Amino acid sequence: MEPKHSAEMSKHLDKQNQVLMETYRAMSHELHKLQVEEETIMHKLYEMMSAEGLLPKDQKEMMTGVIYFSTVCSYRKKESGKSTEEARELEP
């Protein structure tokens, strides 16, 4: 391949890489937003079911632990900036 064409190809591939990384970051951000929304909805569903007496006592105790655990994990992930670090690891 001629040097002129290889330089053009390299520029083209760099641009594609940048576009892909921006897309990856945007999708990761959107995924995180959806996960937070899902967690919020699950909290509300649990509260509603609990208020209506639709949960057996043992399930209430189990669900309380699951919701607490998921909240702590989500908070720690957000605080650690893990998704940002993962994106940086994929950068050249």
Instruction: Sum up the overall morphology in one term.
Output: rod-shaped
The SS-based structural class is mainly alpha
User: Helices and strands, in N-to-C order?
Assistant: HHH
Helical fraction: over 70%
pLDDT below 50 for ≥5 consecutive residues: which ranges?
87-92
Count helical runs. 3
Oligomer: single chain
Mean pLDDT over the full residue set: 78
How many individual β-strands? 0
Distance between the termini: 24 Å
* Radius of gyration from CA coordinates: 22 Å
Beta content: under 5%
Q: What's the structural domain tally?
A: 1
Biggest sheet, in brief?
none
Give an account of the 3D structure.
The chain is mainly alpha-helical and 92 residues long. The longest helix is centred in the first third of the chain and has 49 residues, at 3-51. 89% of the residues lie in helices and 0% in strands. It has one domain (3-90). The radius of gyration is 22 Å and the shape is rod-shaped. It contains three helices and no strands.
